[in-house]
Amino acid sequence: MSGFSEGNPGTTPxxxxxxxxxxxxxxxxxxxxxxxxxxxxxxxxxRPLPEGRRWVEACWRAAPRxxxxxxxxxxxxxxxILWLEKGGFRQEAVLELEQVAVRSTLRGxxxxxxxxxxxxxxxxxxxxxRGARLKLIEVTTGSEQGAIGFYARVLGTEVAARIPDFFRxxxxxxxxxxxxxxx
Length: 183
Ligand SMILES: CC(C)(COP(=O)(O)OP(=O)(O)OC[C@H]1O[C@@H](n2cnc3c(N)ncnc32)[C@H](O)[C@@H]1OP(=O)(O)O)[C@@H](O)C(=O)NCCC(=O)NCCS
Description:
The protein is 31% helix and 31% strand. The chain is an alpha+beta fold. It has a single domain (16-176), classed as Gcn5-related N-acetyltransferase (GNAT) (Aminopeptidase, 3-Layer(aba) Sandwich). The longest helix has 19 residues, at 111-129. Coenzyme A is lined by residues 10-11, 42, 99-102, 107-113, 141, 145-147, 149-150, 153.
């Protein structure tokens, strides 16, 4: 495995004005309703919306074990990513990309990729600050989501296992092993 890929082939570029307008940043508490709305549109597990809100709020309370970043356009939350640190705050950190979602009208324009890249850089910085290194990233995704190729392109993931009949279909466990950080 070659580690995280850096290129951006195959994605329709977002227009220059929109690229300027879409901001990816760490989430604040006021973003939670917007996160729940995007999540509820993307994932059946976050429906109905009040249940989605309850779940998002529970994840928010789990910081710093779980952390959100958002994509904002014209003051509205149009995407988010949720990361989870697994098995303790280890020196050899294992992260799970728990969820990433973009408003359906904005998909295919690079927002999801930017959410991953910006948040991952911030997470790496957090790990560096505590003297830890990122050992690997796990992502699980359903066969029905169609995101396996997306994760392979952006993170360099490989399929490690397939679990039949998990949520709404088969679930794939994807693993990305980044190269060791430069000292
Ligand atoms: C997967 C998702 C976050 C990607 O965000 P995005 O902004 O569309 O991503 P980008 O524009 O950076 O890249 C587009 C990639 O997403 C894939 N994709 C998956 N579902 C898509 C959809 N409904 N519309 C457009 N692209 C989609 C495209 O095939 C493309 O894959 P590629 O890299 O192999 O070409 C977004 O499509 C989404 O929210 N999907 C629904 C929720 C979901 O499936 N999340 C992942 C599982 S946890």
